[in-house]
């Protein structure tokens, strides 16, 4: 039995390490400075009960150093003063256009319906998406993302991080999960099989949207306006990544575990709609992580070839460290590097809880 466990551990370790070696495709990617462009861009923001965040963050959008853009603000049937805040911005700046979505029983709670109306309102072919609680880290955000629209590239994946909060382990965990997810979707794109993007920082052309018939194939899925669209439309030919530090956006993170877990449950519920190869690869990676740590603890308790087991752990941690260090340096998340083994264990536990919870009940509307 002990030999079987050791062999299984070696196989799982090999699989998991192989994934991290594959992630060097992103970790070693070269940051390219943004070039000057003047493509007409429509920045699209869908908001539901986000009056305070809009008031705080929309100025960072309007103050972008870019000559040719409009901002489409979508009020998705808010019950607070979101519409009033939007109207104030529109009155002060003629680049701001409004879409006011009234509750529709057939589409209630469907962000994709609201986004579709916003896309139809946009006058420009190049669409750049972010959230109401997001702010670009620089005035070159639009320039950085728009500069990647070239040749056949019609989908641009950016990094949407979270605002740093001092003395908060939850904040570290949220940002680590976001960093790991980014390492994955950027790497998969570099491999030629893009599987997702994040709506906090995502761009695509309206032509690509209409060629894909919008969100029609997954309109029944409550989430996934970002990842399911990229999963459906993305390819090695039409998808590019933008990892210039000036292209980063940051969002307001959740402040308690309950709200964060609910958010992650909603996001993870879309994964069953991914393409088969993506589900296999992602499932294999997460399973190999969980099994690795379980077998590691078990083998150490049983003292089965413990020098070999610890050697495998050291090798894995070294490869992980290099990947996370290089990736975090690109994405300005360096404070996460030193804690990654602890954060990984907590994240795996959280993901297992999310997986089990989603088996018994599905999250409801996006807000």
UniProtKB/TrEMBL annotation:
Residues 42-174 form the Glycosyltransferase 2-like domain. The chain crosses the membrane at residues 6-26, 280-302, 308-324, 336-356. It comes from the Bacteria. InterPro entries: Glyco_trans_2-like, Nucleotide-diphossugar_trans. Belongs to the glycosyltransferase 2 family. The keyword DNA damage does not apply. Keywords: Glycosyltransferase, Membrane, Transferase, Transmembrane, Transmembrane helix. This is Glycosyl transferase family 2. GO terms for molecular function: glycosyltransferase activity. The keyword Metal-binding does not apply. Pfam families: Glycos_transf_2.
């Amino acid at each position: 039995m002990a030999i079987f466990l050791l062999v299984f551990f070696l196989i799982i370790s090999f699989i998991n390490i192989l994934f991290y070696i594959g992630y060097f495709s992103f970790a070693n990617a070269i940051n390219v400075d943004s070039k000057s462009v003047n493509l007409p861009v429509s920045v699209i923001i869908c908001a539901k009960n986000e009056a305070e965040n809009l008031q705080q963050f929309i100025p960072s959008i309007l103050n972008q150093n870019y000559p040719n853009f409009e901002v489409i603000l979508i009020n998705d049937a808010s019950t607070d003063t979101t519409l009033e805040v939007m109207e104030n911005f529109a009155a002060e700046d003629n680049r701001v256009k409004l879409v006011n979505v009234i509750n529709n029983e057939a589409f209630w709670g469907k962000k994709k319906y609201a986004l579709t109306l916003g896309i139809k309102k946009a006058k420009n072919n190049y669409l750049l998406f972010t959230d109401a609680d997001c702010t670009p880290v620089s005035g070159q955000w639009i320039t950085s993302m728009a500069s990647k629209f070239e040749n056949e590239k019609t989908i641009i994946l950016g990094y949407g991080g979270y605002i740093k909060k001092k003395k908060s382990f939850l904040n570290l965990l949220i940002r680590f999960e976001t960093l790991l997810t980014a390492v994955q979707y950027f790497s998969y794109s570099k491999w030629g099989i893009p599987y997702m993007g994040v709506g906090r920082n995502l761009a695509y052309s309206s032509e690509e949207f209409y060629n894909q018939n919008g969100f029609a194939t997954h309109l029944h899925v409550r989430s996934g306006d970002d990842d399911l669209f990229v999963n459906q439309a993305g390819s090695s030919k039409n998808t590019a990544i933008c990892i210039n530090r000036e292209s980063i956006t940051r969002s307001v993170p959740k402040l308690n575990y309950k709200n964060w877990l609910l958010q992650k449950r909603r996001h993870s519920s879309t994964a069953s709609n991914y393409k088969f190869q993506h589900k296999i690869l992602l499932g294999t990676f997460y399973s190999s992580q969980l099994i690795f740590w379980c077998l590691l603890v078990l083998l150490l308790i049983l003292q089965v070839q413990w020098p070999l087991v610890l050697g495998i752990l050291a090798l894995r941690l070294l490869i992980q460290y290099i990947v996370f260090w290089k990736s975090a340096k690109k994405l300005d998340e360096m404070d996460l590097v030193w804690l990654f083994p602890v954060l990984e264990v907590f994240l795996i536990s959280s993901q297992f809880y999310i997986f089990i919870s989603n088996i018994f009940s599905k999250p409801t509307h996006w807000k």
